[in-house]
Amino acid sequence: xxxxxxxxxxxxxxxxxxxxxxxxxxxxxxxxxxxxxxxxxxxxxxxxxxxxxxxxxxxxxxxxxxxxxxxxxxxxxxxxxxxxxxxxxxxxxxxxxxxxxxxxxxxxxxxxxxxxxxxxxxxxxxxxxxxxxxxxxxxxxxxxxxxxxxxxxxxxxxxxxxxxxxxxxxxxxxxxxxxxxxxxxxxxxxxxxxxxxxxxxxxxxxxxxxxxxxxxxxxxxxxxxxxxxxxxxxxxxxxxxxxxxxxxxxxxxxxxxxxxxxxxxxxxxxxxxxxxxxxxxxxxxxxxxxxxxxxxxxxxxxxxxxxxxxxxxxxxxxxxxxxxxxxxxxxxxxxxxxxxxxxxxxxxxxxxxxxxxxxxxxxxxxxxxxxxxxxxxxxxxxxxxxxxxxxxxxxxxxxxxxxxxxxxxxxxxxxxxxxxxxxxxxxxxxxxxxxxxxxxxxxxxxxxxxxxxxxxxxxxxxxxxxxxxxxxxxx
Length: 475
Fold this sequence. Notes:
Elements: H1 8-14, H2 17-21, E1 61-66, H3 73-85, E2 91-96, H4 99-109, E3 115-117, H5 126-131, H6 139-142, H7 162-165, E4 176-180, E5 184-188, H8 189-195, H9 204-216, E6 220-223, H10 233-244, H11 246-253, H12 263-277, E7 281-282, H13 290-299, E8 303-308, H14 312-315, E9 326-329, E10 345-346, E11 349-354, H15 362-372, H16 375-385, E12 388-389, H17 402-414, E13 418-419, H18 423-426, H19 428-442, H20 449-465
Parallel strand pairs: 1-2, 1-3, 6-7, 6-8, 10-13
Antiparallel strand pairs: 3-11, 4-11, 4-12, 5-8, 5-9
Helix pairs in contact: 3-15, 3-16, 10-11, 10-12, 12-20, 19-20
């Protein structure tokens, strides 16, 4: 990846509520540099107004989709669009939960699929793929005419933050997301209104009071997937920002000394430690489908809150009562000394796609994603998975289910106070391995606040000192 001049503050300014929900009056997004993989071996056709990327019309296309919370029906819609546009091409879509297991060996062999939905627990480290020149640059796609309007480039139909999330320094954009993911404390509005007769807690004292009342009725205040304890970051991250401000988040992103030992980090860990100590947390759920097990317990009324992302509305639809009124809440303020206000939200573009550098049909892969960014495909994506697409204005005027509606309202309420953990993209192991391991012990009461902070800082220092890992530097 190398050093980068990505300015995190600029990304945050651009990823405002107005920009996420409508066409914003902001400057152009950061451009992606020329480069990426060598596409000389890839199939190439004749460029035209109808075929601006020069797709070879009879070239085979293979797409790998992560079969998780969104399953793969939304992708099949795009694959069918591709088949209709290029009827002479053999088009194959594969759905799997094991992206890295199935795709990584093919990248090494130089015989990869043409487009990969690089998501899920078995995700490939995009930073390493970039460093190893296994991922292609999206510049040609971003500068191509959009599907719906040839006068508008693809990059200009994407919500702010989408390009920046996949940009690695001056080397280019190697990953593009298709959804807006809203993280936070998910709950049933019906339970709060009718069972507990309380309002959503805006302070941590209120949160403890709600949990106490829930316990008196035989309901746990919280639950989480014990098999994937890293989900706790979905609730804790925005709280880190609220308590200590953006400087705390920047310290994490840039692997600064003592980044994980800030007083704000300590305060947030202590708040969640109180939930554990008072036995307000429903634990367990450590099997292969831990997240499904925890979500099912939650939708069936065993717990009030669960840390999750906006995919949960689709993923838990089979067990969610019709009158559940699924809602996302921002993390409560700790106290009056908080730097950022209640409503601060962790809401980045999500569900990434990468283009293998050695793809035989590189242009076809880009064309498939160009179709994905059409309003038709974006609206279908919303209908299939109840999640906000990364295409500006795609769902304007549509009827929204409760979870999506609450996500939209949370984004509007957050305004400029939207935060994104870039360290999750830049140094995947910090989240997938180290934070996961720490929270696994912490949420069981087997690790103290100090031990959790020390362990995370050691992990941060380990990566900072590793000469084999390229670092992202401040501009």
